[in-house]
Amino acid sequence: MKGLVWWMLALLPVAVLSACGSSASSERMEVGVMTFNVLCSFCNNEYEPWEDRLAYFEDIMERHDPDLIGLQELTWTSEVEQFLAFRDGFEAVYFEDTNPGPLGMSEYPDATILYRSARFELLENGFYWLSPTPEEAWSSGFAEGIQFPRLVNWARFLEKTTERELVFLTTHFDNNSPSQDRAAPLLLERTAPWAEEIPVIVTGDFNSQPADPAYRDLTEGVDGAGLSLINVFDNAASWKVDTNQEPAPNYDLDMRIDHIFMAEGTAFECSTWAADLYVYGLDDKYPSDHWPIVARLAF
User: Fold this and answer.
1) Domains of the chain from N-terminus onward
2) In sequence order, what are the residues at sequence separation of 6 or more whose Cβ sits closer than 8 angstroms to the Cβ of residue 162?
3) Splitting the chain (299 residues) into consecutive groups of 10 residues, what average pLDDT does each group show?
4) Which residues of 192-207 are buried (b: 16+ CB within 10 A; e: fewer)?
5) Could you tell me which residues come within 8 angstroms of residue 69 by beta carbon, excluding any fewer than 6 positions away?
6) What are the counts of helices (DSSP H) followed by strands (DSSP E) for the chain?
7) pTM assigned to the model
């Protein structure tokens, strides 16, 4: 009898751990994330016309089927609606203003969030501008001369199955220097309070390569202090170039400027990470001057 008791006690930690592991597994949230600068519809005549590229965008969405998407360089509400038409059950969050901005524009979807509404409930959302006056709508950035307004679009979601919350951000740092260097600390400062509470996913075109100062601030904190972000690529169990080209083209990881980050403080896994280098049309052209980045996250 004494031996049986000791045998049962020895098994107790295993049973407890097994039960805890089962509970944690059932509460894990897994999500497919994409970031994609689509190249604005009027920006560059080296690529196919917008109406042709729409079919390419639809193919990208169907192949990867992400749950949360950060898009950059959409210009009009009609273009947001075109993306929503690609997949059933998605809704969009982007900046709209009753007070028209430059050129009389009342909408500015340069940083747009698409989300699977059957899975995520939008709890709240907001915007701030990458400028010395971030609360001032339509305010331009930190460089001299004429430049586009840039903003951060954030949304707080409830995942309906797990009843857990997360914050999803997308942004488009301006390409004019020193906008990236000034935008990075602002984004970290505004993101830090959320990161103390819940998981935060940050996506966008940061116009910042891994060797750039802005990227270093994002991933190491400003002067090595404060909040930092983790590029999900660095945690990826595997990564690939997703392409229909033979042979597969070279992909230089050091040249990346489109990124998916997780705010530090949330333990997460990245099962797959991919750069989509599919080409389309008779001339085998890319659909944009940026490549979609896709990751599968669990936390």
Assistant:
1) 31-298 (3.60.10.10)
2) 27, 28, 29
3) 40 37 59 98 92 98 98 97 96 92 87 98 98 95 89 98 97 96 98 97 98 98 97 98 97 98 96 98 97 97
4) bebbeeebbbbbbbbb
5) 33, 34, 35, 36, 61, 113, 114, 115
6) 5, 13
7) 0.90
